Amino acid sequence: MTPAVSKIIWLAFGAAWCIHWWRPNRRSRKTPVQYSARDVRETVLLVCSLSGLGIVPLIYLATGFPRFADYPLIAAQTYLGIAVFSGSLWLMHRAHRELGRNWSLSLELRDHHTLVTAGIYACVRHPIYSGFWLMAVAQLLLLPNWIAGPAGLVGFGTLFFGRVGREEQMMINAFGDEYRDYMRRTARVMPWIF
Ligand code: SAH
Q: What is the pLDDT of residue 132?
């Protein structure tokens, strides 16, 4: 397993994610927004996440920059990265299907928004974010570079910690005790742990 192969695998998984993401994005855009908490802070958080998970690794792939931070790849890293990225795509696919038209890129409530608490949402409250955490771990494993590899964890981590509390508050405002009860019986992104 060479670094080049590992990078191509990251790119292929990334492309698969983009193709998969296009559908829920198109579907949810057809459903009018009833309430939006999208503000400058949300835009900055989205840019951080996009930079860490997309722009920094793509620059690395295209130019090799920052080459000084390269390190020797261990083959097991690539195999583990493939497994983790596969798990991430599966999780996001399932969560998107279950969330349906309630999905938004940002903090928004759609017309006739329903609270989803079944399926994968019975295990964790934020399975799409669990999927993004896994995607960031896969990037760390697949890209043998001390900056481009962890950039996804830093970028998505910024979005996650900057957003998740606000998202839950928005859901409490909309669904009240139903969401509070749901919070009591579920973890955020990892069952029993967090
Ligand atoms: N945090 C969730 C959803 C991400 S999409 C996840 O990781 O799976 C963000 C939008 O999903 C939010 O704006 C909110 O309107 C909606 N949302 C979040 N949790 C929801 C739930 N349990 N049921 C319905 N909609 C939800």
A: 98
Ligand 1 centroid – CA 120 distance (Å): 12
Architecture per CATH, 3-185: Up-down Bundle (1.20)
In the predicted model, what is the mean pLDDT of the chain?
Answer: 95
**Cα 47 to ligand 1 centre (Å):** 19
Q: Which residues form ligand 1's pocket by a CB distance below 6 Å?
A: 95, 99, 102-104, 107-109, 115-116, 121, 126-129, 167, 171
As given in the structure block, the two tokens for residue 179 are 């969401």
Q: What are the residue ranges spanned by the domains of the chain?
A: 3-185
* Pair of tokens at residue 55: 């722009």
Is the confidence at residue 184, as pLDDT, over 90? yes
Give 176's contacts (C-beta < 8 A, 6+ positions apart). Answer: none
- Determine the distance separating the centroid of ligand 1 and the alpha carbon of 72, expressed in angstroms: 39
In this prediction, residue 167 carries a pLDDT of: 98
* Structural tokens at position 181: 């009860």
